[in-house]
Known about the structure:
Elements (H helix, E strand, L loop, with lengths): L19 H14 L3 H18 L8 H12 L6 H8 L3 H13 L1
Amino acid sequence: xxxxxxxxxxxxxxxxxxxxxxxxxxxxxxxxxxxxxxxxxxxxxxxxxxxxxxxxxxxxxxxxxxxxxxxxxxxxxxxxxxxxxxxxxxxxxxxxxxxxxxxxx
Length: 105
């Protein structure tokens, strides 16, 4: 994400029109989560916006960001012992199948 300026940290107000059924549903969901209706609407809208951006199949970058992106992709990964252990461990269902095959032999 980008860095926000001090001006963008100030809260902004928006106004929208909404049908009563949608308002009732949002109000109920917000109450169930224990947050304000505004907070609920902001959280839900942010999730949808993030998903929409992440679901993009094409990204357009300027040269600097493209080079940064490629540098990150091409850099070697740091050793991850937990991942190596996970990848070296047999899945429980594989062990069960092996046990069944050995017992039926």
